[in-house]
Amino acid sequence: MSYRRLGDMVKFISNKNTDGNATVLFGINIDKFFMPSVANIIGVDLKKYKVVGKYQFACNRMHVGRDERLPISMSTFDYDFIVSPAYDVFEVITSDVLPEYLMLWFRRKEFDRQCWFYTDADVRGGLHLEALKSIEIKVPSIEEQRQIVAQYQSIANKIKVNEQICEKLEATAQALYKHWFVDFESVNVTTLQDYIITNPTLSLKKGDIANYTEMSDLSANKLSITKPIKREYNGGSRFQNDDTLLARITPCLENGKTGFVNFLSNDEIGFGSTEFIVIRPKSFVSPFWIYCLCKDADFRAFAISSMIGSSGRQRVHESYLLKYKYSIINEDMMNKFHKSSTVIFEEVKLLNNQNQKLTQLQSLLLSRLAVGEEEKRKITV
């Protein structure tokens, strides 16, 4: 086992999309995954863009100093796609290094810290190509690389399975909501003011240590809130378990960012972004009904239509949401919905907790890529 320079193991390439066959354009997010680009490419000559093939890497060295990480990813797709001409594309050229192992090394926090250390003094903090090539990577035997990759992939597969189960469970809850509360005609109508409270009064003193949730912790397609952290309270929205957090600012509202609070202890108060509207139920209303309401297309369209403010910083005011017209709810039906949804939401919480522990195990595995064999044997999957 030895350390080797990245530049000695890979070749940087610049295959342009000259034939125009590749039409899918990807960017790279800070979590080191390829994602569909949001760039406007109308009228853009895509023949100048770089082609990325399977097991090839692409990276963006421009903002490493600012973001404190290098956006880099390896393609596992069975088709070629294109990336920005500003990206670097490279591939492994030695038979004793697995591309998948190299990608695991790139996921290490220690690798990002090293890249950040080598950035220049520019405001954006670019990473020079020669500095990237000079970074040394520990390369074990090919057999050990396969074992490490297999361990990591087994964890990733379990996380993916859990996420798929959660997605189906949430779809079931939404279908129950739609069946019992949306798909019928009713002449008896009221407003949401009868059913919900927005931004309830909760007490936190400045300087108190509490769980904090930021906007990036909310997802557009799942109820679980990720990575709450402990920090001093200095203002913001306040919430407790069974509250729903609705993003009220553009583009987060349009994108569907919504979260269900279930990670606090009894009577604990958490806080978060000022751009959350905290919603909780009144009287017999189920908290799960609130979350499903906030994910309902008609409700979201109503909220979006009411946004005010300058372009790019538009918001919906919580008082407007209270005016949303809704059929008068049968209490027995609400109780049945709550009973059915409780099982669903509890299972989602359980699976999300499992995934958090599995993610921690992934991080542990990555952090120990550079340690000795005896230490690695302590990691069990």
TrEMBL record:
InterPro entries: Restrct_endonuc_typeI_TRD (IPR000055), Restrct_endonuc_typeI_TRD_sf (IPR044946), Type-I_RS_S_subunit (IPR052021). One of its GO terms (molecular function) is DNA binding. Keywords: DNA-binding, Endonuclease, Hydrolase, Nuclease, Restriction system. Residues 53-170 form the Type I restriction modification DNA specificity domain. Gene3D superfamilies: DNA methylase specificity domains. Signal peptide: none annotated. Belongs to the type-I restriction system S methylase family. This is Restriction endonuclease subunit S. It comes from Epilithonimonas hispanica.
